[in-house]
């Protein structure tokens, strides 16, 4: 099945005689787009065709436009930002395409591991705005689910039974913190900034491992 746009419908039958076929590469399906997005977001897992190192290189920011603090360019992607439910700016990586009556957006949000695909035909051209609006709607719900999951897995006071070692973990505005760290009887916080009463945890990308 092929979608023929009301704007410039003749494009559906044009032959570009190269890899841009058909219709400048704009013919696809939501199913194919979803498979592509999943392959990006599952990079580095067993059976993936894309290594985690390659993916991280692809989404690396090459230049930030300081005049707006909103847009950046990467090696492969255009990068924009959107606020999450905790008012933090998070990066969205996308590619936009247009050919006469066809308009498309493929976008990923690596911070919460999901993507959005928008395929349009007709006179309305702004697939990017629709993708951006989808992120705005979904993000608060995903932030809530992730916070609940992190709370159930990590928040609490953890004690090592065979030594005087205690770690207290809390979550605040979507970020995990260590509020107390006693290692073999020594308060480790005394070795850090005396004005800081907590330390943020960052994932090492290994299961249940933070630094």
From TrEMBL:
Domain of life: Eukaryota
Listed name of the protein: Beta-lactamase transpeptidase-like protein
Cross-referenced InterPro entries: Beta-lactam/transpept-like, Beta-lactamase-like_AB/R
């Amino acid at each position: 099945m092929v979608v023929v746009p009301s704007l410039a419908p003749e494009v559906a039958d044009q032959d570009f005689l190269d890899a841009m076929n058909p219709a400048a590469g704009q013919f696809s399906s939501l199913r194919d787009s979803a498979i592509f997005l999943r392959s990006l977001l599952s990079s580095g897992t067993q059976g993936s065709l894309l290594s985690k190192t390659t993916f991280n290189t692809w989404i690396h920011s090459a230049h930030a436009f300081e005049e707006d603090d909103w847009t950046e360019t990467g090696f492969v992607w255009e990068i924009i930002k959107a606020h999450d439910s905790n008012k933090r700016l998070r990066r969205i990586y996308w590619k936009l395409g247009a050919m006469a009556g066809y308009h498309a957006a493929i976008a990923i949000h690596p911070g919460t591991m999901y993507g959005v695909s928008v395929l349009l035909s007709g006179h309305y051209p702004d697939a990017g705005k629709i993708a951006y609006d989808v992120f705005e709607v979904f993000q608060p719900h995903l932030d809530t689910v992730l916070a609940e999951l992190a709370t159930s897995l990590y928040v609490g006071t953890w004690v090592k039974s065979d030594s005087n070692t205690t770690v207290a973990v809390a979550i605040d505005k979507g970020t995990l913190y260590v509020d107390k760290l006693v290692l073999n009887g020594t308060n480790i916080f005394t070795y850090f900034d005396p004005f800081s009463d907590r330390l943020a945890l960052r994932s090492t990308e290994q299961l249940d491992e933070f630094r």
